[in-house]
Queue: 4 jobs
Job 1
Amino acid sequence: MAEDKPDIAWRVVGGLVGLVTAWGARKILAFAWKKATGKEPPIDTESPEVSMGEAIGYAVVMGVGMSVAQIVVNRTAKKRYDAWKALRQVTPGQ
């Protein structure tokens, strides 16, 4: 069975959800990093002033954190969008 292509509305909604999720996750992860380490997150992980351990740790935290946030939010948004779309198909004209 061929999977339907996402409609244009979901593309727009999904894109906006992705942007907001990335922005919010980055802010939350930076706050958590500061609370856990007592230091600001490294801006340039390639700088010699940032230790190798700190650069790798930050990359791991950001990579995993951003991926998990995207998965959770995108799945939730898609379920809600599909439910809304199904409801609109059942009650046309309202």
Job 2
Amino acid sequence: MGDRDDLRKFITDLAVVHGKVVLSSGQEADWYVDLRRVTLHHAAAPIVGRVMRDLTADWDFDVVGGLTLGADPVALAMLHAATDSDRPLDACVVRKAGKAHGLQRRIEGADVAGRRVLAVEDTSTTGGSVLQAVEALQQAGAEVVGVAVIVDRGAGEAVRAAGLSYRAAYTLADLGLTA
């Protein structure tokens, strides 16, 4: 099995939780994909980084990040996956709001001004979180090259409508799930 198959197995074994849940979008679902169970797993995280790097290999960017918390382990996995490549990456974390103390930064980590940034998320239903991150990155002077998620729950249309390229490593159908 390759990385894509291995990651799909981690997702279906660890992250898919059956039962009624309310998503951050406010929508109800009969199951939830808790990707933090995968992105923060000792064996799965490195695979996340490799799969997401492969997914976006033809996009030109040198910073990766998104809205905390879902994007953080994805960005870090990609940063670590890039250490042995000729295309190193920096990572950033986008807060939901600027801090009221310290440097009062909304974006932590790499300075994104004038840089090409890939916005990431673990999973996205409406695109709301990742588009909030994109807006903050653009306000900070970044050129957002696109959006990539591990699992798409339906956000592609909204992200593309915002004028951004969009890719997902897996669809719900890939995981044997329906919307």
Job 3
Amino acid sequence: MRPIQKSRKLADVCYDIRGPVLEKAKQMEDEGHRIIKLNIGNLAVFGFDAPDEIVQDMILNMPNAAGYTDSKGMFAPRKAIMHYTQEKNIEGVTIDDIYIGNGASELIVMGMNALLNSGDEVLVPAPDYPLWTAAVSLSGGKPVHYICDEESGWLPDIDDIKKKITPNTKAIVVINPNNPTGALYPVELLQQIVEVARQHQLIVFADEIYDKTLYDGETHTSIASLADDVLFLTLNGLSKNYRSCGYRAGWMVVSGNKKPAKDYIEGLNMLASMRLCANAPGQYAIQTALGGYQSINDLVSPGGRLLKQRDLAHRLLTEIPGVSCVKPKSALYMFPRLDPKIYPIADDQQFAYELLAEEKVLIVQGTGFNWIAPDHFRVVFLPNSDDLTEAIGRIARFLESYRKRRAIA
């Protein structure tokens, strides 16, 4: 029988958060090894439970969840999302502008599928959450990466954005709060991005899934609140702020200048109908989550578990010779840098393999987030303090061995 090949559309697609290094980790676990996983923001496995009221509402409504819902989602959760957009000062949002999906991930792909033709370009940050790059490629488009500048706290480089716009550029992706760096963008920078989008008639895709996971008294501004003459698609959900990753309850809000986008919105509606609907049990969690007690504040405030673990991870990482790290203002990750003079790494995926093999710690290499050089890696700071201390201690030991081997060579 002739070999069955994967689609050529997958040639430029990667998702190393669940990639080859994870497969090796699974194999090692099958052999009896205990792996400390710092690769994915899956909160439940680290003891961050979904709020009880969300769980109870889903259980209570389960008898009503067997049928298809409206293709865009149930009325009550969409109404709650509409009220949330008002709290975020996003104007002009109606029920019809809101799409509920099986997590924001499904809606990212839907948004790109409805928009892109072969050769269309989308500006995507580097580093990025790799689903964005993959969604552009799968939709026939070309991801063009603009640089986020580590020296400025990982803020997007506006001049680099401007240089990379061509007649084929259709949209720009803004991940704020940022994954993988933990950066939080100030209003002045967001206004600059809006002005670029305005001048070049770009759609703004705003990934705001961590908009409540903020530290040190920081506040988040939705970029869609800053203009009504640009088209915005804002994505959010329950996965992170409400520790409900597995419930797959996300949403996408269309706002701003919708008049020229009538045909595009028809495409979104068509794709929403084709998948029939988002899962109904997860939809029942949305209204309760948005309107209930915001327990995320307890986790990020002084004395909160997430804040303490962020501070611990940052201190331990930056105590390692040759390792620097911008302290994240938001989200669940940090993106440390390995000084190339001390760690001249040519292949950072191989670096991740070797760390896994020698120290049983799983991380994701920086190029897995479309970073331009093999000199960074991402860690999540979700494990409890003891496990986090153990994991970073193992990383430190591995890097010490790396330095010694290089000195001998």
Job 4
Amino acid sequence: MTIIIDPQSSGIAGNMLIGAFVDLGADADKLKEVMEKSALEFGKIEVTFTKVSKCGIISTFCHVEMLEHNHSIDFKEFISKIKELDLDEKIINTSVKIFERIAESESKVHGKSLDEVHFHEVGASDAVADVIGSVYAYYSLGYDNQKIIGLPIAIGGGRVKTCHGIIPVPAPAVVEILKDAKMIGGPVDSELATPTGAAIYMELCNEIKDFIPQIKVKKVGYGAGRKNFKHPNVLRIIESSDMIENDEIDVIETNLDHLTGEEIGYLFDVLLDSGASDVSVTPIIMKKNRQGSLLKVISRRKYREIMIETIFKETGSLGIRIAPNTHRGIAKREFEIKSYEINGKTYDVTFKIGYVNGEVISKRPEYEDLKKIAKDSGLALMKVKEIIK
């Protein structure tokens, strides 16, 4: 499945993302509870969801009303409070990354270190609600297991009044956040892309494209903006099923002749943890008949610099080869969890299911789950594989 975030019409804001996610099936009552509780440490808010018409398009409007605002705090204390929230670790970690994007943009614009950035510059209780709400909805819909494509963002134009005075649109912080994205000026003299919305977009998107790729639309959600224009002030999110997609990847290679087997094994794990799609090591004969290894890393383009930096750091290599614009066919993938009782204990096993044109081509249990069962039960791995079918 591919998820398309489409901010081409009226930009993007945190509440617009939440509204679109609710339109796609996220639980509005649960979101209200999570958002209000998470923001309470920074100021009391009230969240409401309503159906509205924006130039004839029925959409969900998420309204976050600030009832009180606590005093500003520094960024370090702010992040500490976010990490203490009673939420799943993956929601906390993703939310922290989003706030770091906002804070880093503010620090660069204002010439401050992160330690000097204060909460009123990062956002208030409504921003906390927007970020936590968006991330919670994203995970609740299972979109973390899907490919997220972002389309160009309409940013508006003109000027806007802020705590730092009157500034041009897009705001300098938005420009910093969207440096690697694609922006479109207009279509109105108004601010359309907020720092919060832009940071969430950049964190959630796996890829940014000019146009929607070949897909089959399954569901469409519309999140409404607060303002009314002559065009629909909505953010559109499309949930699609795709046939076979092409994915731009990098194949990164280097020759190794000075690392031990243990060091290569460690490098293998570090690269996978850093985002590599696959890592392989092949024995080779190098110049002067030296025995060596060919390290090959397959990685999405977004992780290229991380992969290169990691290889240089961990191997001391003096040269790395990159073959860009390599394409591969990718079957549609879904994950399914099944429970099995083994020796009186229940275990959950995740299956990766591959589809091509709607037909199942593979259904395999995840190795890490099988390994965990084998260690815990004392059974041989091969025996566990026989049981888990």
